[in-house]
Amino acid sequence: MENYLIEFIGTAFLIAFGSSIIAGVTLNKSLSQGSSWLLICLGWAFAVMIAVFISLPSGAHLNPAVTIALAVDGAFPWSDVLPYIIAQVIGAFVGASVTVVHYYTHFKVTPQEVNTKGIFCTGPAIKNTPMNLLSEIIATFSFIFSVLCLIVSDIAPGLYPMIVGLLIFVIGVAFGPTTGFAINPARDFGPRLAYALLPIPNKSSADWGYAWIPIVGPVIGSVLAVGAYGVFF
């Protein structure tokens, strides 16, 4: 139960930081409104780094794709997979709720035409279902394969969160501009659900028709990464 709570807390911090960074870039009258994609990627990198530091005692999964990958690899018990995922999704919902509260007055002065959905969940720059799915598979494959290599490497535990943060930055810059690089089903589904359910001023559709891609894509990418890692290492 302690590990589930740590996963919940770590994921809540991750999303509270991450979605708030995008809110600051997106919403009217924010002091950081209009900032660049590089700021978003760098902000998410540090958000992941801090969240990993917080949740090291639970293994710092923070992501169903990581949990599933480790279970497929035999390094994590299948009996804990569903409780971890539930904790991560609830944590992501709570983290997104923090963003809603913190930026509530800015939502009120931002018209519905602005894509506030993008503060909470991902979406494609060009809508093309096969390519959008492939984009999420490639980004998640790269992430999970790298994480598996990090886990078995001889690095100091304190360096692990920083390296994972750098990895997130690289993936965001390299593969993120096509779909927003969810690479984490909880990071997308929990905040998307929060956007749909919470009384956010001037909100638009949560686009549930796209929502399966940032769930299925990362799961496929994670399983493929485990398979490739097993072949090469």
Q: What is shown here, in short?
A:
This protein is an all-alpha fold and 233 residues long. The chain has helices at residues 2-26, 37-54, 64-72, 81-102, 104-108, 117-120, 129-152, 159-179, 185-197, 213-232. The protein is built from ten helices and no strands.
Description:
Helices cover 69% and strands 0% of the residues. The chain has helices at residues 2-26, 37-54, 64-72, 81-102, 104-108, 117-120, 129-152, 159-179, 185-197, 213-232. It is globular, with a radius of gyration of 17 Å. The model has no long low-confidence stretch (mean pLDDT 97).
Unreliable stretches (pLDDT < 50, length at least 5) are none
Number of strands: 0
> Cα-atom Rg, whole angstroms?
17 Å
Average pLDDT rating:
97
Strand content: under 5%
Helix content: 55-70%
Main attributes?
233 residues; mainly alpha; 10 helices
What is the secondary structure topology, with strand pairs?
Elements: H1 2-26, H2 37-54, H3 64-72, H4 81-102, H5 104-108, H6 117-120, H7 129-152, H8 159-179, H9 185-197, H10 213-232
Helix pairs in contact: 1-2, 1-4, 2-8, 3-4, 3-10, 4-9, 7-8, 7-10, 9-10
